[in-house]
Amino acid sequence: MGTAGEGRDASPPEEEFVVTPWEVRGRVDYEKLLRRFGARPLTQSEIALLEKYAGEVHPLIRRGFFYAHRDFDAIMRWHGEGRPWALYTGRGPSGPVHIGHMVPWILLKWLSDRFGVEAYFQLTDDEKFLDDPEMSLGEATRWAYENALDVIALGFARDRLHLVVDTEDIQLLYPVAVRVAKKLTWSAVRATFGFTDSTNVGLAFYPTLQIAVAYLPTELRGEATPVLIPCAIDQDPYFRLARDIAEPLGYPKPATLYSKFVMALTGESKMSASNPDSAIYTTDDEIAIRRKIMNAFTGGRPTAEEQRKYGGNPDVCPVYHYHVLFALDDASVERARQDCRAGALLCGECKLVLYRRIAEFLREHRKRREKARDRVDEYRVSVKFR
Amino acid sequence: MGTAGEGRDASPPEEEFVVTPWEVRGRVDYEKLLRRFGARPLTQSEIALLEKYAGEVHPLIRRGFFYAHRDFDAIMRWHGEGRPWALYTGRGPSGPVHIGHMVPWILLKWLSDRFGVEAYFQLTDDEKFLDDPEMSLGEATRWAYENALDVIALGFARDRLHLVVDTEDIQLLYPVAVRVAKKLTWSAVRATFGFTDSTNVGLAFYPTLQIAVAYLPTELRGEATPVLIPCAIDQDPYFRLARDIAEPLGYPKPATLYSKFVMALTGESKMSASNPDSAIYTTDDEIAIRRKIMNAFTGGRPTAEEQRKYGGNPDVCPVYHYHVLFALDDASVERARQDCRAGALLCGECKLVLYRRIAEFLREHRKRREKARDRVDEYRVSVKFR
Q1: N or C of chain A: less Cβ packing under 10 Å?
Q2: What is the pLDDT of residues A288-314, one digit of tens each?
């Protein structure tokens, strides 16, 4: 689950935006992206199925941030038949976690609680090490443990969160991964991920591990246990492959639930680790949070006067986008949208509201995060299943 | 450590023989092969070094079967300085073990005893699974355990033999392997091993594991512990890479000691699993051993009369070759050679002598092999170092 890419094809395709597991460039047209990947939009009837079994619909789905899927409806029906399934997502531990990273994890936690199902969370320290010429393996593994604190802090039931740290839990993954590897030729991974001759053989092999976790619940339980994977849509290439080879390997096809990207505070389509001011990290103190939010790019007008006269544009505004992701009630989001458009809400006020919400969220999060520090191993999949 | 190859370049080069880790074709010119690979012949002065420290020279070296090396002299000098080193070899567990497989292991055991150093023995069940379209992973792992019995039966001291079963001991190997992988591009492994676009990514990654074991003693001991690898010369491509990247990764360069191939009973340069009559398996009973040896190809003449008149040719004769490998004293080998050439020894008699020697060797071996059956885990590297 990645960022910048070493040894991949750097030539930009002749399109207005680029989305790969390692790169998001240009302004993303999410509908077009969906057609490009061949995933399906999340429809009202699928959301109704979710509501039927979960009793409610999470705001991240209700507000359209999770917007696409593969076989989400099949998982809901499978659940309706009382059959076992599991959740799966992950993180490439290349540095500290920002709130954008946490958005899919928040949905993961909600789904795990609502459906009472286990969540597998992969920390791909091997991939981050293999992908970043500057990073040592020890450093990547330390980030995996550091990032795990943010996952645990979301409040998962201990017996329902299974952390998979690639280099430390490889004993469970490798026998599955080699069976995946036997189905994937170099030309297949090259085409899917844009690898080149100078890609290292670790990165060439890595997709087998991200795919292997999708089959791990079936392995560990000894019965067909499909996974639902909530993640950003850039991960689709992995799970498209995972779906293609599942049945020949005797596993149920994984289902996916895809989100858009979390906008950078600077207004780009996706938060970037290369500019620390473009993202709010879970370890940022309140002064830093306030500074970053107050300095954020907005959809507002250059002056308060123009804003009052013409209104702002929430659709390009990261501050509004964060209200969508983090506001507690839909009504306040809708009100912010209308007031912005009408020129009744100025950016400074709107930012202050967001600051208070994010600061409050992270205040609690940081406490739980520190409490998790000595308990990571309790959530490790191999410690439990050894 | 391999046999037949899937997804590798099948076009035969314009040379009179082919040697890769997966294939030996044609009549091998061992001197030419040495120059092709760039390894060095084992000289009298290096053998004298061995004798100095070991107190004697093993027949397999004395009789020229181990004939080449990389840095064998450096390992002897390192030993002379009282510094730690280890031994390493391995086996691709694709089926039962024949006596040809065991020849390098016999030297491994002797070196381990004589120098009191630990021997790492890798069983590459992952590779055999990835390489053979017909083999399941479970089958390859079962062969790994079955083949391990033959290794243990050679009589290694328990604390000096460390078995590495790739899929079961991957936790120790993987963190080293990913650091190897970061140094190996697709184009490097393609060039070294003749991979193609249809090679699966498991085979593309596999060389990192065979290389990783060469660094494992240094990892486990926490101090520079070079390995000496006695193996057939077809494994040189792996260890050439292992030597190239050792120093950038902070490991001492592995040294190697290369043997020729064990001739097939049918007269080809290397025993082949595809014809069971070309090899004597450790589990063959005495009737089968006798039948195979008595039916073997020889360097003899069509009739006893011609043999007496013109003599035979031990240089192309697998029966003579097996005397070289297994006879207890040099004098009997030399006598067989001279008597054959002089026409004084007929093939039938010569085969009977060989049959008695091999049957005796395997009679003891089979007993020790069965005794080992419940003790394999005691030799497993991760069971010891967990």
Answers
A1: C
A2: 999 999 999 999 999 999 999 999 999
Identify the structural domains of chain A with CATH numbers, from first to last. 18-260 (3.40.50.620), 276-370 (1.10.240.10)
Residue B315 region, left (φ>0) first, then alpha (ψ -120 to 50), else beta?
alpha
Residue A243: predicted pLDDT: 98
Q: What is the pLDDT of residues B294-333, one digit of tens each?
A: 999 999 999 999 999 999 999 999 999 999 999 999 999 9
B165 is written with which tokens? 């079963």
Residue B183: strand, helix, or coil: coil
Which of A7, A183, A186 is facing B204, going by the closest CB pair? A186
Residues of B numbered 203-242 whose beta carbons fall under 8 angstroms of chain A's beta carbons: which are they?
Answer: 203-205, 207-208
Q: Do B205 and A207 touch (CB under 8 A)?
A: no
Decide if pLDDT at B276 tops 90.
no
ipTM of the complex in this document: 0.92
Q: Which two tokens stand for residue A222?
A: 């000894």
pLDDT: which is higher, B17 or A376: A376
In contact, B17 and B269? CB cutoff 8 Å: yes
DSSP class of residue B234 equals: G
Q: Residue written as tokens 């791909």?
A: A124
- Band of the pLDDT at A5, cuts 50, 70, 90? very low
β-bridge partners, B257: B69, B230
Closest CA of chain B from A186, distance in Å = 5
Q: A6 vs A170, which has greater pLDDT?
A: A170
Q: Do A202 and B187 touch (CB under 8 A)?
A: no
Phi, psi of B41 (to 5 degrees): -70, 150
User: What average pLDDT score do residues B226-230 get?
Assistant: 98
Taking CB atoms and an 8 Å limit, are B167 and A183 in contact across chains? no
Task: Classify B7 in phi/psi space as left (phi over 0), alpha (psi -120 to 50) or beta.
Answer: left
DSSP letter (8 states) at residue A94: S
Question: Does the distance separating the beta carbons of A208 and B202 come in below 8 Å?
Answer: yes
Chain A closest CA to B356's CA: distance in Å? Answer: 43
Q: Measured at the alpha carbon of residue B145, what is the angle toward residues B140 and B146, in degrees to the nearest 5? A: 90
- Reference B383, options B67, B187, B199, B158; nearest CA is B158
Q: Which of A66, A5, A98, A31 is nearest to A229 (CA)?
A: A66
Residues A243 and A201: their CA atoms lie apart, in Å, by 23
